[in-house]
Structure formats: C-alpha cells, structure tokens
Amino acid sequence: MRKSTEKPEYICNLGSLVSPVPLNKRLSKNPVLITRNTWIKILDGKIVETGAEGESLPAESINSIVFDAEGMLATPGLIDAHTHPIFVNNRQNEFVRRSRGESYQQIAAAGGGIVSSIQGVRKTSQDELAKIIQRKLDGFIFAGTTSIEAKSGYGLSLQDELKSLRALKQAADNHPLDVSSTLLAAHVVPPEFKIEPDKYVDLICNEIIPQVVEEGLAAAIDVFLEEGAFNATQTRKIFSFATESGLRCKLHADQFNSGEGAAIAVEFNALTADHMDQTNDEDIKALAEKGVTVVLLPGAVFFLGLDKYAPARKMIDAGCKIALSTDYNPGTTPTQSLPLIMTLACIKMGLSPSEALWAVTMGGAYAINKADHIGSLMQGYDADICLWNAEDVDFIPYAYGNMMPEVVFKKGKLVAQRQMQVIN
C-alpha cells in the first residue's frame, strides 16, 4: 500500500461519508445518506465504489495508492451556482455607507452599485482580467467549492461583455475549478443608455447574444428583473432572443420587490430563479410544478442589512428544488464561503444542516444542469471530494466563520490542502 497526497486510488479511514441523494434516487425525505468508518475507490476521476459501514479496504488495495483521511468527514465538493467573479475593484466604501444608514437603492441612485464596477472592467485588458479572475477561482477552491456558475455583467457593452467572458474562459481553462459561464449583459442599463434603455436591450438581443453564442462563451443568460434594472417586457424580449439562440434562462428576481419573476421563469422554462426573497405562495407552487431550481442567496440579505429572507422552508415543503449560493460579488456579498451561507440558511431560513448541505451540493448541481455527475458521492459521480475536520455534517454550519475543508479533491486529484501549523 502506497500513501499519496496527489492522485489516490482509494481514500481510506473516513470517519463519515455524507452523500447527498439525487431527487430521482430518494427513498425517503432524508436528503443525505451517511456511512461511517468507510472508504472511497476512485478510477479515472470518478467514484467507482464506496465501502459499507465499518467495511475494511478490499484486499486489492494492498498495491494501490491510498490517501489516509485520518477519521475526517467526507462530503462532495461544494457547488456555488450564482457568482459574479469578473470584477476588478472592491466596493468596501458602500459597506461603510450602508453601515451609516444608506440603502442599496440610495447608493445605486447616486452612482454606486453595479454601475460603479463598470469602469474597472472596461479599463482592464483581457489578460490582466484573466489573472484577477484566476486568483478568485483559487479562493473558491480553498473554501471547498469545486464547481461554480460565473456571470458577466460588469462590462455592459458588446466589447466588454465579450472581453469578460473570454477572460473567464481563459482563467478557467488553466484552473481545476469547473466554471459554468452565464451572460449577464442585462445586469443594469449602462450610463450611456440611461435615457434610452430599450436601445440597450436591442444591443443585447441583436449583437451581444449572437456573438456570445457564436464563440460558445456561455451556456445560459441571466436578467436582473427589478426596479432600477430591467422590467418584465424587456426581460421577455431578451429571453425570447436567448432561447431561440439555444441559451438556457436564469433570472434575478423578487429580491427587493415582488413582481413577475416566477411567472417569467415558468413561461421560459428557466433553469433557475434566483434571490426570490419576496416570492409569494402562489409563485412557489408554480416554480415547484415547473421544476425550476430556486437559488437562494441569504448572504446578500445579511450583508445588505435587510430583514426578509426567502421563504426557503415553504419552498422545500412545496417541492421546490433549492440551491444555496454565495452571490459572490464586490458590492452585496463579498464572501466565497458556502459553509457560512449554510449557517445563514439554518438560522434565518429554517433549514437543517443536512438540507443546507444538499442545497450547496446536489441543489447547486441542478442549478447548473450537471446533477448527473456532480453533487453526490455515489458511484459514477466525479470524485470531487472535501475532507472536513468534523464529526458530522452539523458541525460545518455550527462552526460559522471558521469552517474550511482540510483537503479538497477535484476529479480525484488533490487540489488544496490546509496545512495546520503549531504556534509555540
């Protein structure tokens, strides 16, 4: 038996293995299966077998490369299904302004918010932007996230949206993190189109979407449907052009005001409806019946100092697929920690730790349309694995602000290891 920290064939001596269950394989309401004192066998980046509870490694492992987990807890790599990592400048000044009583809407109306991030992206070259993005991708890996959805949306012109998505691809092509790209040219109306916003919608439909599709730069499109961003008519027009071009639809909606978000998500068979903090019971039922994955972002509610969190408990009880995500961005949620988001979901949304783990693994996989091969530790899934210094899954959201995995594997290869050092 050879020990390795690079690309093992077995991970042994697991204290517990926590595997979220895909919806089509559930036999009970329990969202995860827990196996104690077990092991994982990996071949060609896939999980090919896991041991029964208390089962010793098979005899064939004697000549294999083995990683000793030393009693740690194994979960799938986390999946962050809503992020905005293509930015240059931070916006900590807005945090200070909010701490003094200004609202997000007041800051945006005064030239802050999303618009304030445009110039940094527009002035930065593609190569430099790619380097900046790559450092952000590193941060996700060390936080235990092995797959993300990443949106454009701080360029807001043909040239700069294309540059953003090209830089994202350039960074992702040289990084172990899996990145699913989304076009968010419809984030807000840029200043040069403020007087004639419909002309910007025409630009998105007639120029940006066709070029993004031609270059294969995104698999989905997103629109921020909200007062001060895009209205329902504009959203429907953009989605119509996008679906005809083969892009799946995603939607920022019902974050600050209840509107037509759920209806439009259902109408266009959206892959996800995101935020949904103001969503009512009727809309929840419609989203559940249509099978739209609802991506909840409690970090944004918390960091903006708001009180109303999305009704996650109602959504789950109604049969909605739920994902939890960071909404990582420079203004409203500058965290890459999904364990912290799990904590908020448990305290503010009524989820159990097991439900929260499902939402940052299988739920995230549904949200990026990859639930057939990531998000679980079942046979046939990618060997995206986090090892935690925890006795059970409850400890991950309990130890809020401190939790990071000790070891992260991506497709069976070790990509991050937290080195614990003793201070004398």
Offer a concise description of the structure.
Helix content is 33%, strand content 23%. The protein has 424 residues and is an alpha/beta fold. The protein starts with a strand and ends in a 7-residue tail after the last strand.
What's the oligomerization state?
Answer: single chain
- The percentage of residues in β strands lies in 15-25%
Tally the helices.
Answer: 15
Give the C-alpha Rg: 21 Å
Major sheet: 9 strands, mixed
Q: Give the name of the CATH architecture of the largest domain.
A: Alpha-Beta Barrel
Helix percentage range:
25-40%
Distance between the termini: 34 Å
Please outline the helices and strands.
Layout: E1 2-3, E2 10-20, E3 32-43, E4 46-50, E5 65-68, E6 73-76, E7 78-83, H1 92-99, H2 104-109, H3 118-122, H4 126-142, E8 145-151, H5 158-172, E9 178-186, H6 197-215, E10 220-225, H7 232-244, E11 248-253, H8 261-267, E12 272-275, H9 281-290, E13 293-296, H10 298-303, H11 312-317, E14 322-324, H12 338-348, H13 353-359, H14 362-367, E15 385-388, H15 395-398, E16 407-410, E17 413-417
Parallel strand pairs: 1-5, 2-5, 2-6, 7-8, 8-9, 9-10, 10-11, 11-12, 12-13, 13-14
Antiparallel strand pairs: 2-3, 3-4, 6-15, 15-16, 16-17
Helix pairs in contact: 4-5, 5-6, 6-7, 8-9
Describe this structure in words.
The structure is a single chain. The protein has 424 residues and is of the alpha/beta class. The protein has 2 domains: 2-76 and 375-417, Urease, subunit C, domain 1 (Roll); 78-367, Metal-dependent hydrolases (TIM Barrel, Alpha-Beta Barrel). It is built from 15 helices and 17 strands. It has helices spanning 92-99, 104-109, 118-122, 126-142, 158-172, 197-215, 232-244, 261-267, 281-290, 298-303, 312-317, 338-348, 353-359, 362-367, 395-398; strands at residues 2-3, 10-20, 32-43, 46-50, 65-68, 73-76, 78-83, 145-151, 178-186, 220-225, 248-253, 272-275, 293-296, 322-324, 385-388, 407-410, 413-417. The strands form 2 sheets. Strands 1, 2, 3, 4, 5, 6, 15, 16 and 17 form a 9-stranded mixed sheet that branches. It has an 8-stranded parallel sheet with strand order 7-8-9-10-11-12-13-14. Strand 11, helix 8 (261-267) and strand 12 (272-275) form a beta-alpha-beta unit. The model has no long low-confidence stretch (mean pLDDT 93).
